[in-house]
Amino acid sequence: MKTILVIGNGMVGYKFCEKLMAKAKSGYYKVIVFGEEPRPAYDRVHLSEYFSDQNAERLSMAPRSWYEENNIELITNERVTDIHRASKTITTISDKEYTYDYLILATGSSAFVPPISGIEKKGVFVYRTIEDLDATMSYVEEIKKNKPNGKAAILGGGLLGLEAGKAIIDMGLKTSVVEFAPRLMPRQLDGDASKVLQRKLEDLGIDILLNKGTQNIEGQDSITGMKFSEEETLPVDMLLVSAGIRPRDELAKTCGLDVGTRGGIVVTNDMKTSDDSIYAIGECALLNHMIYGLVAPGYDMAGVAVDQILGGDALMPTAIDMSTKLKLSGIDVASFGDALNEAKESESIVYENKFQGIYKKINVSKDGKKLLGGILVGDASDYNMLHQIFLNGMAIPENPEDLILGARGGEEASFGSALDLPDSAVVCSCEAVTKGAICCKVNDEGMTTLKEVAAATKATTGCGGCKPMVTDLINESLKAQGVTVKETVCDHFDYSRQELYDIVKLKGIKTFDELISSHGKGKLGCETCKPVAASLFASIYADTGNDHNVIQDSNDKFLANIQRNGTYSVVPRVAGGEITPEQLIVLGQIGKKYDLYTKITGGARIDFFGAELHELPLIWKDLIDAGFESGHAYGKSLRTVKSCVGSTWCRYGMDESVSFAIEIENRYKGLRSPHKIKGGVSGCIRECAEARGKDFGIIAVEGGWNLYIGGNGGATPRHAQLLAEKITNEEVIRYTDRFLMYYIKTAGPLVRTAAWLDKIEGGIEHVKDVVINDSLGLCEQLDNDMAGLVDAYKCEWKEAIENIDEQNNRFAHFVNSNESDETIEFVSLRDQKMPKLWA
Amino acid sequence: MNSILENYKSLAESEVTTWFKAAPVSKFPENGGACVKVNDKQIAVFNFTAEGKWYASQNVCPHKMEMVLSRGMIGEDCGTPKIACPLHKKTFSLETGENLNGEDYSIAVFPVKIEDGFVYIGTR
After folding, report:
1. Domains contained in chain B, CATH given
2. For the structural domain made of A2-108+248-310, what CATH number should be given?
3. Which chain B residue shows the shortest CA-CA distance from A60?
4. pLDDT tens track for A562-600
5. Which residues, at least 6 apart from A58, have a Cβ–Cβ distance to it below 8 Å?
6. DSSP 8-state assignment for residue A602
């Protein structure tokens, strides 16, 4: 048995172990891993997520048990201090000695701290380990406690620095990013791309200072500012340094291995150092005079080292792909190939849209035949395909601009199909899975789902960025076999939601058990099909959240929105946003009585947070006694109909928007649907109710109301489209009835009206035909169905309270005790309370 | 925060030393779950009425460490009985406790028996 010692338990060191375990015969190698940090390897790429959830577990690459199961000895908190090459041994800080046959240096890198005078002051942090983040966060808390308007700065405008900037601003400090270069992410972006990104980041509240060399860190013991020049100082209370990395090569240096003049352990393309028994992989390795600070090349190096040790002949490729795609605070940023045209072998095609903050650039070879690199900011949806075209040297369209602008005028998509990729194209670079391997699972082994293919190939299980392309490959391969890909609800039903709607209605099915035994598979169902069934029973029979309780989704089950710490929020209906002073007083008294955090919602009503499960019926009893009713804020149902004040008060108002909003909200309250529904009524085209951002929007104009449908805010904002112009109140209600009912009958689960309208064949013209011209002969049915639902409305909270069974109370936390959940803890926040963060 | 998880380790039926008498069967919703206070611990018990089976697990979801699993939705995944957490729909096998979305954390599961109309949870 040979002994392999791995020094360094970071992402690449872990990957080495994983790849070795997958390939080596068991019992052949004894593996000991040394980590200097207290915990096993974790995902440093997603480190900034730790700022928001402090969940180190979630970042973990593998639990300790994984190492045990694979007979790997993992020794954390133990720094290796010396390598004795002559005796093939190492010693650790606690003076223990180990012998090796092969030694793997996966020591990674440390944060580079520029030699600025005063940088050792209190309040200056680096951004590298979970411990660094813990220290940073507690300092932020200290600043917030002692000083209003505390300020932070990030030194370095690379991708880590920008991520850290967003995290600090989210913690509540005003944040500036200070970059020495004239642009952000100087290694990935050009000046114009950087400007687009800068504007977007500034919109998020991050200050960007470019071209700034820091001369001195000001302050006595603690940092108070950064001095750029005699005239210019930036006052800050803390500084996070993210100015690049330094390879950890000190062990290699002291034992006489070759290291580069600017650091890094010299390796050849078989990942061997100048000593044949010692390999260096990841950010500590200097290959082709370069340090590769990305995880994908590090994983490749781990693979090469494993193969070499097992007697193979794998080598690192001569050109190493440094392409990156990331989401920076929700902003897409990607760059691939020769993004900055450093080789001067290409001509660029650039598209820039300042309205939407989109920048796309591709570098095309001078003969116009090959894609050599590119940059995408604001919209990186084309990245996977462009990256594949670049990697595989695929032919590009005659007009290369089609690659970023789409084929204009023609029918065909500019990329063709994902199936056009060569079989050797690596689609999942984390796990090195090719297009050929994925298609083979579908074509030869009969797999049909992403889940099966992912389990068999590991594709999509790393960063997950290739998911859309793998899904496309599976669906396209199935299509090529003549299999039609059907949108079924889940594994338990071979029907779409629309088909199930018809089945339930025509056959009069009243319960989930009846539905699954007659039309599904198995007896139990799952968290996808059960809420779909509950929603159908509600939309067809006006059943409420109290019926079929165990198949209701989390929130419908307890008629309240479950919040971060397992407590609930309570929102009574305030139709149209109209509320009397007396009602406000009552709400205030109830909020006070139960000590609830109180906030005005985006839908112009009042939200109480922090109610424990057992308190819900008590709170609602008080609300109902005071004349309130359920606001259905928890349901896939009508939420609010927002209104502006309208002609009753406004000097510009054309009609009474508040009165109409109240009428409409009361008409559709309790209506359950495939997803939530929001409405708006504006009294004039100034549109203060933002009605065109709603599922249905009604705007008063000269001569009547304009009715718009399919708007949305949220992640994919969409303006609603005009359904009918200058119509009467009665017509508004008639068309809205039919539109909503048609949507409820035909949409997929959890599809908002905007996405439904996008997908429905014929789009808005089709919907106009159906609800105005009755082209499908459906209108009478739609009218009747809606009238039935409107008539059947009842307040489900009133119903719940009247039917509480003390013996089987679903609002009790324990089934065998009246105690409440003692693990729920609150802390104070601006004179109110909030959930305690996990320590 | 891992200290909470330390309190919950899966138990095989053969390792049970004490059966904790939880509550009458009628207190548990059919095809649903409820939370039982077992001394200072919280155990979620699931009544798979459709199959006549019972399962128990820790009530705390290891994803965000909230005491909520008993309020989740039961179901099955290719024959494996499972629970979906109400917070983020993380799903766990009620037979082995493993996460079914391919994530690393898992939940502790415990034996359940029904005797004389009462639900008992295996403890040690």
Report:
1. 4-123 (2.102.10.10)
2. 3.50.50.60
3. B104
4. 998 899 999 999 999 999 999 999 999 999 999 999 999
5. A49, B63
6. T
